[in-house]
Amino acid sequence: MNTPNESLPRIAVLATGGTIAGQAGDASKTAGYKAGVVGVDKLLEAVPALSQVARIHAEQVASIDSKDMSIALWVTLAARINELLVTDHIDGVVITHGTDTLEETAYLLHLTVKSDKPVVLTAAMRPSSALSADGPLNLLNAVTVAAHASAAKQGVLVAFNNQIHCARDVTKTSTYAVDAFRSPEIGALGWVQDGRVEFQRKALRRHTSQSQFDLRNALPAVEIVASYAGASRAAIDAFVATGVKGLVIAGTGNGSIHASLHQALADATKKGVAVVRSSRVGSGHVMRNGAASDDSLGSVSAGTLNPYKARVLLMLALAAGITDPGAIQQIFDTY
């Protein structure tokens, strides 16, 4: 890479592996590759234009396939980001990540990073060895966003396929397409192209420096159970028996729950298990049902959060000692 201009912003690039760091023996193949094998230095070498955008500080935090993301790595990543951003030497952070769990990591960081400086995640749908690999441009765009003044105080962002998404809203919507990430309910925050960054709106919910959450306390066990035709209560009973502290239901439609699951959840809440109703649909919001479900169960509506992000927020709430259903509902209405 060329020596960057000393007047440029200083951006930390934290690599965690994923498809963006993947490699296959055949450049024509976009599946069957090994994720996370290309180091951060090689990723950066593939994008020489970065030297015209920012001064890069690179760290290899992990080298995993993001399907194997863990809570322990979340804690490590959040702690390192907070350490970097509290200094005057780093102006923003970019995280390279696998696509499988990117939305979960992004939302966790959205609620636990304690800085107004830009934090941007990016990834790729094609390994670095593939024809027309999308990782280099996504990385360039992510650094461009992180180096841009307008990205400050926007919370954690995802830069992917020229779009900029809010961590709370974004989700993976395709198994193969390079435009795999969307914000189905309200759309992207803005866009980035050829060095230009433009935001069309701002995230209004609390995040980052305004968030009450951190990772000082261990995250409790929270699991996800789906509702579907002929569903059995066996999974709920098994989770409760293992000592789970919370359950998120990926319900049908407006977070509706199969009758066989309803009684199991009622039994679970009597044992102190927190229950949140989300939806498996993929977009839209889950309304609070009052006496029809939530009041009788003592359950909480996830609003527009999908089951995976609802799990993240419920873990953080429980870790903060928030256990009353009404108080948890207020958290979901706020974040």
From TrEMBL:
It comes from the Bacteria. One of its GO terms (biological process) is asparagine metabolic process. Residues 10-203 form the L-asparaginase N-terminal domain. Residues 222-332 form the Asparaginase/glutaminase C-terminal domain. Substrate binds at S66, T99, D100. PROSITE patterns: ASN_GLN_ASE_1, ASN_GLN_ASE_2, ASN_GLN_ASE_3. Keywords: Hydrolase. InterPro entries: AsnASE_II (IPR004550), Asp/glu_Ase-like_sf (IPR036152), Asparaginase/glutaminase-like (IPR006034), Asparaginase/glutaminase_AS1 (IPR020827), Asparaginase/glutaminase_AS2 (IPR027475), Asparaginase_C (IPR040919), L-asparaginase_C (IPR027473), L-asparaginase_N (IPR027474). SUPFAM superfamilies: Glutaminase/Asparaginase. The active site is at T19, T19 (o-isoaspartyl threonine intermediate), T99. The keyword Hydrolase applies. GO terms for molecular function: asparaginase activity. Belongs to the asparaginase 1 family. This is L-asparaginase, type II. The lineage of its organism: Bacteria, Pseudomonadati, Pseudomonadota, Betaproteobacteria, Burkholderiales.
